[in-house]
Amino acid sequence: MKAVIYTNRREDRILEFRRDFPEIDWTIVWSPGDLEAAVGDASLVIFSNRICTPEVGAALRRGAGDALKWVHSHSAGIERISTMGIPQGVPLTYSAGAKAPVCAEHAMMLLLALSRRIWELRAAQARHHWARREMNFTIRSLESETLVIVGLGGIGREIARKAKAFDMRVVGVSRAGIAGGDIDAVVPRERLAEALAQADAVIIATESDPTSRRMMNAAAFAAMKPTSYLINISRGEIVDQEALTHALETGRIAGAAMDVADPEPLDPGSPLWDLENVIISPHVSAAGNNVSYRRLKELFAGELARFRAGEPFAHRFDPDAAAKRAAVVAAKG
User: Fold this and answer.
1) What is the number of domains present in the chain?
2) Which of 8, 53, 224, 229 is least buried, going by the fewest C-beta atoms within 10 A?
3) Is residue 131 within 8 Å of residue 120, measured between CB atoms?
4) Of 256, 255, 253, nearest in space to 238 by CA
5) Active-site positions?
6) Beta carbons of 108 and 87 less than 8 angstroms apart
7) Is the pTM of this model over 0.70?
């Protein structure tokens, strides 16, 4: 069985699949042209969602032969790979939940950095100033505060679990999620403003699709408390950065932490870089966890076993279901 890995990073851990699955004939490619040349006799192609573009999809379609039976994403997000144009009839699987714990950990770190006003601590340290008196009145605790999590997939639910360790009240905004366990209440997406009005902090963990792009806009920020924080670890296009900048500059919200931007990297000229109540994190929420790779490997091994046995995949993307969900949300709002 021949498999092709398409990547643009020589340090990409997915390259360790060559060592961990030696029974597969692996080919590594670094460009759309190389992909087109290599994929003709491949049964499987593995991508990272973040580097999938229409150009990559076109190269895949031109080069793929009848042998291609499976496309796999080693990312949880699939908004790019699912729309780049996979050959018709070829199933797409994705790595749901593999990186959820470390992404949730990063989100909670950003929330703590905001609530404990880490930028003021660093500024005082730079001045060699023991700022206990001033900071006693600005630092906030998370206990009993309301956290609104937009998106209750694997990452959103893991954030909820960790937030409960801080005794927070957790409200989810979801198209299909239900309350229970670590989630105290769920609000449908069309009532987003109602949820935002309750929030002491908002964490964006939803997928990017036509219904979520720019959902955090001027109207959303107007619904938030002036003491609330925004954290985005999902996709940059979900937040209107111009509206966010205005909300921060005018005190409409208290602060923001962004692990993602639109476009990436964040424009060096963006005013967000210079706002003291903004934390910029360069899309690293999934980094630094060796256990994540183990989960990626285990998930792929399970799908590989099902592929060889002719059984249905456990984590297969269903484009028809996705289109129906988007249509329902669009009709409601």
Assistant:
1) 2
2) 8
3) yes
4) 256
5) 235, 264, 283
6) no
7) yes
